[in-house]
Inverse folding.
């Protein structure tokens, strides 16, 4: 066999061997994690979570995350307690309610501190709601109790002695109430508000100015999960801090992820929804759970009767992971 043919065959053999070794190299093992989420579909409201998923932040930290839609706020943490998910994203006060009943629960990161619940109307007779008193004699939609929305609307009604009718409906049913003339104002989350605004409905209400910043949405888990898998908890919190940083540094990321979630919506609607949420500073710049915000949330639930007695923040809050993430990764504020 000629020497150059032998050399060529040896070269081909080496290339094939090299390619085969690359093909057989094992990929890094990722921890499989399930996060229970409020509702029955993805919402723009939970943008940091989706940015962490879609922009590869969970993957970068060695996590393979899937979502489990769990229904109403109280059902999210119930899903975590049952073991069907390691973490839950929703109203974090249900960890405190769990402790009130002798159960487990810890909040490890804060995701939303301002509610961002606008209300729209299709009625010319309804004017801009500038003070709580402007709601007197009207009817307004709400997600079902014990949702945060219902609790805060009910608190607003009681504090101001309003003759305000609160009509409950599940997700997806808010605008139907308005169109059926069963409410004067439909309260909803994005992008639904921007969708109907694009159709000519008017935004006349926003609950945010009358509610102090508090623990609206957080990442919850159990003491057992923290004890068994502290590194996994840290990776979850790190990924979410990274997501918040990215979201505030580059609004285009939220536009892009929003479009992935709602591919059939126009750019105008998606951009308007994202701009409203970020403009209202709904999301904290650091995912640490502040004591004053947590205690404000507890007071709201004590006043509503859902929580029986006051609690120290550390009963249901574990801040060490969020503090560590904020220290190492920084924040945009």
């Amino acid at each position: 066999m000629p020497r150059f043919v032998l050399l060529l065959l040896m070269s081909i053999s080496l290339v094939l061997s090299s390619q085969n070794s690359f093909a057989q190299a094992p990929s890094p093992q990722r921890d499989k994690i399930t996060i229970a989420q409020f509702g029955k579909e993805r919402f723009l409201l939970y943008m940091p979570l989706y940015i962490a998923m879609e922009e590869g932040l969970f993957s970068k930290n060695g996590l393979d995350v899937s979502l489990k839609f769990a229904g109403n706020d109280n059902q999210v943490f119930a899903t975590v307690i049952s073991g069907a998910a390691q973490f839950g994203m929703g109203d974090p006060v249900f960890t405190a309610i769990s402790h009130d009943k002798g159960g487990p629960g810890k909040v490890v990161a804060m995701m939303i501190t301002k509610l961002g619940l606008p209300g729209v109307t299709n009625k010319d007779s309804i004017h801009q709601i500038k003070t709580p008193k402007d709601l007197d004699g009207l009817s307004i939609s709400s997600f079902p109790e014990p949702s945060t929305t219902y609790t805060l609307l009910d608190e607003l009604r009681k504090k101001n002695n309003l003759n305000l009718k609160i009509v409950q409906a599940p997700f997806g049913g808010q605008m139907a109430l308005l169109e059926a003339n069963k409410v004067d104002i439909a309260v909803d989350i994005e992008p639904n508000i921007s969708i109907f605004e694009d159709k000519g409905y008017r935004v006349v209400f926003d609950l945010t100015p009358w509610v102090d910043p508090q623990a609206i949405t957080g990442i919850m888990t159990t003491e057992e999960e923290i004890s068994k898998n502290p590194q996994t908890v840290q990776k979850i919190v790190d990924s979410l801090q990274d997501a918040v940083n990215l979201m505030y540094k580059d609004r285009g990321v939220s536009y892009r992820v929003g479009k992935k979630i709602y591919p059939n919506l126009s750019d105008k609607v998606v951009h308007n929804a994202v701009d409203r949420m970020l403009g209202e500073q709904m999301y904290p710049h650091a995912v640490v759970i502040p004591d004053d915000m947590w205690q404000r949330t507890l007071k709201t639930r004590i006043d509503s009767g859902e929580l029986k007695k006051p609690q120290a923040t550390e009963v249901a809050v574990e801040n060490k992971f969020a503090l560590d993430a904020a220290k190492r990764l920084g924040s945009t504020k």
The chain has two domains: 31-114+214-329, 118-210. The chain has 15 helices and ten strands. Residues 3-24 form the longest helix (22 residues). The longest strand covers residues 63-71.
